[in-house]
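Run folding on both entries below.
>entry_1
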Amino acid sequence: MPAEGVQLTAQPNLLKTDEVIRLAELFVKEGVTKIRLTGGEPTIRKDLVDIIASLKQIDGLESVAITTNGLMLTRQLVALQRAGLDVLNVSLDTLRPARYEQVTRRKGFERVMAGIDLALQLDYNPVKVNCVLMRGFNDDEICDFVQLTEDRNLDVRFIEYMPFAGNKWNDEKMVSYKEMVQTLKARWPEFHPLSNGPNDTSKAYKVPNFKGQVGFITSMSEHFCGSCNRLRITADGNLKVCLFGNAEVSLRDAMRSGCSEDDLLALIGGAVRRKKKQHADQKPACSFHQMPEWKNEQIARISNVQHAWEQSLLLHLPNIMNNNFRRLELRGFCSQTDKTLTHTDEKGRATMVDVGNKDVTTRIAIAQAEVRVGAHIMSLIEQNTMKKGDVLTTAQLAGITAAKRTSELIPLCHNISLSHVNVDLKLDKENHTVVITSTARCEGRTGVEMEALTAVAVSALTVYDMCKAVSHDIVISEVRLLFKTGGVRGEFRRQ
């Protein structure tokens, strides 16, 4: 706990109970099997028992866990177990009461230990105990922690000290996994490794004849990013594909602005595809083809952090259709006797084309736009370090949403029921350009080229909006139709 405390997030900005459950249902539907409620401190939420009970009702969810500081376990654990809590993690960095008070800025070490013993009595086997080992602070207790596993079925997991904003990290404080193992083998020469699962974050070890075991989370010295299948959602609804990443996408804002399930999936999928392959350096993100299929076995972490993360862009396009459009008249562009123009009536007033007599056919359109951003902005986009958030994912969702609302933005366009819309953004690093391509399809009586063009145009404007704080020297160009098919004029293909 920082000496100055933490700034709490305003209650309306936190995810509501039903929003937590809606997101959980969405992720489980896409293949997530485990959900952990973590911190901040989840036990301070008055609806924690209700959330766990509701999560356990989701078909396909195999495990619900919490990570807690343990202070409230003696009061709450029985109710949490009845609600269906499967797995318990307790964060504990010291076994010395005075040192505990120093790091947490409160008393309560005895309550935490009583909570751990209660969990063992309630058959949480093992209880996982997480300890961040820091040189010069608690590294002298490593053997004491392992000694706890002699007669308790605990999984004590030592976490390498990691750099976060505000924790005054320096590499001299970090005790590496190999150094920890050497220390423990000097005390217990037969201390040996156990087998691990393909997506385990902890390297398991054991002292022979001890009841419990030990694990090492090697986030710094031997990162496990390549096998990481975890996602994280903050208490205020931001999706983080990596704990270390700055980029966040606000699922809360998307839900509250009326995004459909398909829109949310597009937002999530785009963010996951841009997950970096390694957290601790500045290498570019994996390409789509290098990433594993995200929906097969992701673990969504519904986080209960009590401080606010930087808000992502609100992804709701306003409805600009109003009465002025209904009164729009075109004057001086055609005579009353000219019958060749299709968007005006005999008096020269704007009107929609009547397509009721046209045949229903498959209509497909592909459009493209380019945004020249310069070398510096290109680097920020590629590294996903723009302060406003994930530029490519935000622009992708904005383009998809715009395609669906084209008839609201272009007054004389028909309201089309799209069967498919996709927006793809690629980085042309040689020319410092974001290339945006959209595809729209429907089964109907009129074409979808306007939907495809609107998608790339709004997506390009979103790239501009996300990047303009860095530089206004951004050029949107080459907004064009590449291909269309369907309708009386047949196929068009730009050479």
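>entry_2
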Amino acid sequence: MATRMPRIIKKSTTTGDVPKGHFAVYVGEKQKKRFVIPISFLSQPLFHDFLSKAEEEFGFDHPMGCLTIPCSEDVFFDLTSRLSRI
């Protein structure tokens, strides 16, 4: 039996494109890009630690209208690829 792994879905459009079981985040230091990720990531301690560090360093001001994570896309991809393997 194959196991289905959660994945990031990169989106470039707006609000109506978030599938059930996912949520949108904006990622980037200068230019923000929108990504849709599985809600299951919220239950992972690694993702909790990541969000806590982002909050400590940058706060959670969300001018884009949804969760904004001010880190490089490379850092975000590294984290989410590790979460997808869990």
